Amino acid sequence: MQPADRLIRSASARRLVLWGGLGAGALALSSLAAFAQGHAFMINVSPSLPYWAIWVTRGAPVHRGDIILFDPPTSPLLSKHFGAKPKPFGKRVSGVPGDIITEQNRIYFVNGQAVAKAKLESRFGEPLALGPTGRVPQGCYFVTSEHKDGFDSRYAAIGWICGPRILGVGRPIL
């Protein structure tokens, strides 16, 4: 084989490897983009959950005991405490559709089991209106936090958390 022939074959092989690598890279990026549409990694800066790293799966079925991440509703109370555009909240699902939520002396019950106690006022001294009671509507959840200062469904400013607000189900990592 002549040196010129080797050079041509070598250039063709390099070009083939380059195109193959570009194709594999494009495939990897599109797979990663599809994965990212259904998943997220979130850092928790709130003391209302004991985890600081949470893996979120969008569109996963929600069950009692799950942690869900959601966009909080807009209200003057939330704006004052968390800013005009608060970050997503993460809370534990205590009540699922069909459960009965009751309140007595600011203690909330799900199907007769105590799950949380509501405070009288916020850390800034505003009175805290009580959240919803009754049957949890279809597509909605009653969420709580183990933290005494957790801001969740026991307060009217949060209330039921329904489908469109839910970003996904969280699994604690750390």
Automatic annotation (TrEMBL):
Coiled coil location: none
GO molecular function per UniProt: serine-type endopeptidase activity
Pfam families, per the entry: Peptidase_S26 (PF10502)
Peptidase S26 domain segment(s): 35-168
InterPro entries reported for this sequence: LexA/Signal_pep-like_sf, Peptidase_S26
Membrane spanning stretches: none
GO BP field: signal peptide processing
Record protein name field: S26 family signal peptidase
Organism: Rhizorhabdus wittichii
